[in-house]
Amino acid sequence: MELTSFSKRRRNTEVYKAKKGDNEAFLALIDQNRLNIYRVARGILKNEEDVKDAIQNTLMKAFQNIHTLEKDEYFKTWLIRILINECNEILRKNKRNISLDENIGDIGEKYTDDYENMDLVRAINSLDEELRILITLFYFEDISVRDISEILNISKGTVKSRLSRARLKLRKILGEDY
Questions:
Q1: Is the pTM of this model over 0.70?
Q2: Cα dist. 170→113, 117, 135 in Å?
């Protein structure tokens, strides 16, 4: 328990320093949350370029607005909220764009995820966006129902009912034995 307490104090110290303009402290915070940021963005967006854009926009906004963060202990929640808003903005833009050729594949660098072919990942990706986001935040990022409620601006009861609905859909897709 002491290690966790020490880790939280250290992170809060880093947040405090970052809010005061310490660029190294901000970079340390981003480094600590790097994998979480990527997984959430990847859970929402399918295109790797969109994921990179969302992360880049999130980091810029977070850097510019870190002084607005009221409670240092909610840095991760605050950062993920910015990321989700950026992902949703990219999704809205993509819906407005009309593809001239649907058959053109991704050009350039392609990220290969060894877990991409797993049944569970495919099942999660087949869920509606709102359920996919909840599953990603709750199970992969280990964010509490209360924090998810705050991030998504919905009630705790709504989070719980959507998680329940997502679990039922995943059971149907994967089968009871999974």
A1: no
A2: 21, 16, 10
